[in-house]
Amino acid sequence: MSVSQETTDLLKEKLKETFGYSQFRGEQEDIIKNTLAGKNTFVIMPTGAGKSLCYQLPAIATEGTAIVISPLIALMKNQVDQMNAFGINAQFLNSSLNKAEMTKVKNDVISGQVKLLYIAPESLTKEDNLAFLKQAKISFVAIDEAHCISEWGHDFRPEYRRIRSIVESLDSTLPIIALTATATPKVQQDIQKNLNMDDATLFKSSFNRKNLYYEIRAKRDDIDKQIIKFIKVNHGKAGIIYCLSRKKVEEVAEVLNVNGIKALPYHAGLDSDIRMANQEAFLNEEAEVMVATIAFGMGIDKPDVRFVIHYDAPKSLEGYYQETGRAGRDGLEGICIMFYAKEDINKLDKFNKDKTINERDNARMLLNEMVSYSTLGVCRRRQLLHYFGEQVEKDCGYCDNCKKPTPKFKVEQEVVLALQAAIMTGERFDAQHLADVLLGHKNQYVTSYEHHKLDIFGKGKSYFKLQSDDDEDEEDEEDEEVEYSDEEDEDGNPIPKPKAKKAPKTAKKKTQQQEPVEQWLSVIRQITVLGYLEKDIENYGILKVSEKGHAFLKDSFPLTLSKDHDYENEHIEEEDE
Ligand code: ADP
Ligand code: ZN
Question: Measuring CA to CA, which residue among 48, 404, 374 is closest to residue 209?
Fold first, then answer.
C-alpha cells in the first residue's frame, strides 16, 4: 500500500484546517504517510520537534480509533484538551476516571466516534480493557515516550514491556508507530527489539540544537552570587533553574527574591493550585525565573526561555538534554549553564543504594556518562551528539570548551596503544579495564582474564608520568571533615554536604596533575568521542575499535586532545570587580 496524491492533498488540507499549520516540519509528512501505508514506524526526534502531530494527523485522516499509549496522565490530559479544542474527538482511559466515565469512553470508542484514545500502559494491560479494545475498530497504535520500554532509558516502565504482546493479541497486523526523544543507540535497539519492530522505517532527526550554548562551571560557595550576577546581566529574560531537591528549590527562589529577582518555586511538594499559579505567572512573564525540580517542564511550551541553569547535576545526559532543551525553543538564544561538583555525583549515586544491582549498575553508567561529559575538555556539543549516536567531525565553536579551551596535548603512540589494548583483550572490555591493562595493574579482573600475560600489559606506564609542573607542592588536599547537610536521603540518613570549593585566593596558574589512570581514561574517552573506538550496543561500556580506529592503526598521525577540567582546582577568572 502506498499513499496516493489524493491522500497527500488531504493531509495538507487537514494540517491547515485542523491544526492551522501551513507546512509540515522536518519529516512529519513522510512519517505520517508511512503509518497510513500500514507500515511500522519508528520516530526519534528531539523534544519540541513535533512528534505528536505524527500520530494525531493520521488518526484523523483514517477510519477507526488510534490508540495512543502514553506514560503520564498529565500529558494525556493536555493533549486531549488540545485536540478537543481543535474540534477532534479525543479521549483518555486511565486511573483518573471513575466507572461511569470509563463506560462512557468505551461506548464512544465502540460506536466509532473517537479518533484518538489515549491510554496508560497500566490500563492497557487490564483484562476488561482488553476485551473492550477487541470490539473497537483500531486504526493503528502509537507508543509515545517509547524509551520507557528500555531499562537503559531514563524512565523505565515495566508495563511497557507488555505492549507488544497485547497489540498482537488485538490484531497482529496493526501498524505501530513508536516515538521517543531518547536517541542513544542502546535505547534505540532495545525499543526495536522489545516491540519486535526490526522492519520499522526509522526516522531519526538530528539532536543538534544549534542555538543552545553549553557551559559547565565549578560549583563553589559563590554559586548563588554567580547565578544572581548572571540573571542581572540577562535582566528581563526568562529562565529556569533546576535543583535536585524541593528544599533547594525553595531556598534558591528565596535568595533570588531577596536580591530583587522575581523568581517562583515549582516542585511536586507544592499544592497543585500554587503550582499552577506559579506556572501561569512564569508563562505570562509575571515572574522571570522559575526555580524548579525536574517536575517542571514536561509539556510546557514556552518558546522564549532564554536560559536554563542546572544548580545540581542531573542523573543522566538524557535528563540534561531534555532540561537544557527547554531553552531557546523559538530558535533564538538559549544559554545552558550547569554547576558541577563531583560530590553531587556521589550524592546522586547514593540515592541508588536501595535499587536492585541491575538498576544500580545502569544508573551508575548513566552517571558516569554525566561525569565524562562534564570533565572532558572536548566540545560539549560533539560529546552530547556522540552520546545520542551522531558522529560529528568538527567542534561547534559555540560551547565553553570551544570558546575557552583547556590546554591541549598531542598524542599518537598513546592512541595506538589504547587501540591495541582493546584489540588484544578481544574488544570485550570497558575503558577502566583497558587503562588498567595499559598501566600494568594486576587487579582481580586483569588476572582472571590473564591479561597480565599480554604483550600490551604495562606498556602505557611510561606515559603521562606524574610531573610537578612547578615548584609548588599541593599539600592542602588532606582528608577534610565531611559536613552534613540538613537534607536526608530516603532512609533518613543525613546527606553529606557537597563540598563547595572556595575560589582559590591566589590565581594559581597550574592545574593539578591527574593520576595516570585518569589520564589514560581521558584519552580513551576522548578517542571514543572522536570515533576511533566505538561503544558496543549490546553491552554497555564495552569498547571496540571502529573502522576509523583500524585506519589509524595502519597509518597513524598526531592527534590533538584536550586536558580534562579539574573543577576542584581550576581557577575561573574572576570577571567581577
Ligand atoms: P514533541 O512531542 O516532539 O516534543 P510537540 O508535538 O509537542 O513536540 O510539538 C512541539 C510544538 O510544535 C507544538 O507547539 C506543536 O503545536 C508545534 N508544531 C508541530 N508541528 C508543527 C508544524 N508542522 N508547524 C508548526 N508548528 C508545529
Ligand atoms: Zn563546542
Answer: 48
